[in-house]
Structure formats: C-alpha cells, structure tokens
Amino acid sequence: MHDQSGDWMSPPTSLQRGTGFHHLIADEHRLIAQVLTYCHAAGYAIPPLLVIDYLIAIKTSPFVLLFGPSGQGKTELARLFAQALVLPFDDQYIYVNLGSSLQASEIQDRFGWMKFVETLENAAAPANAGRLFFLCLDNLRPHDIYTYFANVSRDPDGITRLVMRGYPPHKWPALPSNVIITGTLDAEHPVDRDQSSLLAQINCVYMQPQWLQSNIRTVKRQQRMAPVGMQRLLLDQQYRSDEAASDRLQTLLGPHLDDILQPPSELMAVLWQSNLTYTQTWRSTMLRAVANSFTIEGHGLFIPYDVLNNAQFAYSFVMARQLLLRLWGQPQHSAAIEALLHRQLAQLPSTTLVGLTDSLLY
Fold first, then answer.
1. Model pTM?
2. Over the stretch 51-102, which tens digit does the pLDDT of each residue have?
C-alpha cells in the first residue's frame, strides 16, 4: 500500500483473515513469485509454502538439508530455485551426486569432495563477489552430514572456514558468504544422536507427500531469464548472526520478542518425551530462522500483514520440521508433530502471493 507520495506506508498491525493482497511488493515476495513462475514454466507445480520454507532456510544458514521420502522432489526443488535466480549463468548452479554403488563409493566420495572445494574456491574469487553460487549435494548418507555440514570456525585472519572432520586444519576450506549449500537426505536413512546434535545447527526442509507437497505435474512452457537484482536481494537480506537476528526481531516485535521465542507447549512435551534438550545452539538457529521469515520491508513471508502471528507461526513451523528430522523413525513422536503441523497449516489465512492464484493452503 502506498501514500500519495508513492512511499511505502506501514502495514496494518493485524490481518483480516481471508483477505488477499494483489499489489506488487518489491522484496522477497517478488523473488518467491519468480521462483514459482520459473518452476511452472519448467514443468513443475511446486507449492508456495515449500518455496517460502526453503527461502527462509537459505537466508538463515549457508547449509540447508532437504529431507523426506525418496521421490518427493528434493533435488528438483534445489535445482529449480537456483536456476530461477541465476539463469542463464549455469556455472552458478553446481550439482554433485554422492549416491553410488559400493564398488565406486571411494571414487565418488573423492570426486564429491574435490567438486565441493572447487566450488568454494570459485565463489571466493574477487570477480564473483556479487554472484550467488548454489551447490547441491544430492543423495547424502547420514555420515556425509559430518563431512559437508560440519561446524564453522574463524581463523586468526578472520576467514570463515568449515571444520571438516578427519581433515587437518590447513585443508579446511573457506566458506564464502555467496555460497548456498543444499544437501538431500532420504528419510529412510537413520540419524544417530551425534548427527541429531549437529542437525540443530542446520536448517532443514521437510518434504512429505500428503500434506506439504503437491504432486509434480509436467507442462511445457518457455523458461524466463532471472530478473536483475534477485541475487543481490538474497545476498543482502540474510540474518546469520545472533546479534543481527536479535536486532531485527527487536525492531519488528519489540516487547513481544521474549514471549514469542519460546517453544510451544506441544513441542516442549515432545522434547521431554524424546529426551532431547533444547540447547542454546538450537535456540540460536530458531532465532535466526524467525528473523529471516520477514521481508526487507518487514512483511511476513507466511502471514504478510500480521507481524506477531507470522513470527509465532515461523517459530513453530521451523522447530516442528527440525524435530521431524531428529526424531525420524520414531512414529509415536512424528505423528504428534505432524498433527501439530496440520493444525498450523489449517490456521493460515487464505491469502495469495503477489497476485498469484496459488494459495498458501493446499
């Protein structure tokens, strides 16, 4: 909404349920619309909520894990999102398939590691400072999480590096800020407790067929080149430190901040029953995820004109999918979490994104 001078006015403090908005918002909503349009033109019907979920994850952390049953479009989501923003510059999307037969596993692992480091070095080149690079590590195995999604440290020169388990410090690669690393993990692979602790530092997107993902259907349309400025928007609008995320949320939520950043009682019950500890590391990840659930203009990505409800929904939604991954294979807990997500989705307002007919509900 604009005033007579053409400047943006502050959004209303509450959202009228069921009321959509159809004007153009020059921020992440345009980026989401670009990705959805590109996906459709490429022949895929991707749910808008899935794109929003993935966008928040990559804004929050350079590491994103797409997990769920095999064949649900994990690889396609990573590829289409990247290509929607970098087409026709295909060198900015790098795909590494880590799945292989047992006989070829050593060669495949070595190739994957070399390609991984090569991508980081290329992105770190001064000429590529303003370009986004998307690296997709497909068909991860649980132990690969340690290799490719390990801890981040800063060396004495202030360079951010990946602490690669099993490699000497002088071989730890630098992690440029313009690299997004996405891994795909089939949910049938068990995740042990050590891996579960590491996953608290990683943003994950849960892709489940019945209620979070629509069927992929094929259409034939022409793809469009990515608009200028989308990569810069994504590079600039990232809150990846606790300080930056806290400042952002303090501005948006003010005195409500502490009340919102508490796990819902239903999820706390799951934590207690499953003997998981809500650590400071996990809370830090949640803080950054909620901060990144807003656009540059302060509109919610889930609920555009309701700041508090958007923050509360983002917190519950992100924490629920974290729990789903860490408790995968424990059906008694998974059922309770999925029931909560069902109720959350049912409470979303029937609003549309940037004039698109795709509803957030499906």
1. 0.80
2. 999 999 999 988 899 988 887 788 999 999 999 998 888 889 999 888 754 4
Q: How far apart are CA 77 and CA 50, in angstroms?
A: 9
Same domain for 202 and 115: yes
Centroid of chain to Cα 270: 23
Instruction: Look up residue 71 and give its amino acid.
Output: G
Sequence-distant (6+) residues with CB within 8 A of 109 are 98
Q: In whole angstroms, how large is the CA radius of gyration of the chain? A: 20
pLDDT, one tens digit per residue, over 171-192 is 788 888 899 999 998 877 666 6
- For residue 6, tell me if it sits in a domain: no
Same domain, 205 and 292: no
Among residues 62, 28, 25, which one has the least CA distance to residue 239?
A: 62
Give me the residue label for tokens 């068990």.
190
Residues 56 and 169 in one domain: yes
CA distance 31 to 229: 10
Beta bridge partners of 343: none
Retrieve residue 60's tokens: 């929050």
d(CA 344, CA 268): 16
362: tokens are 């499906």
**143 and 53 part of one domain:** yes
DSSP-derived 3-state class of residue 53 = helix
Q: For residue 64, give the H/E element and its range.
A: strand 63-68
Cis peptide before 48 (omega within 30 of 0): no
Q: Are residues 170 and 257 in the same domain?
A: no
**What SS3 state is found at 35?**
helix
Range of the domain at 342: 239-353
For the chain, how many helices (H) and strands (E)?
A: 13, 7
- Per-residue tokens: 79: 């590829």
Asked if 244 and 291 touch (Cβ cutoff 8 Å), the reply is yes
118 and 69 together in one domain: yes
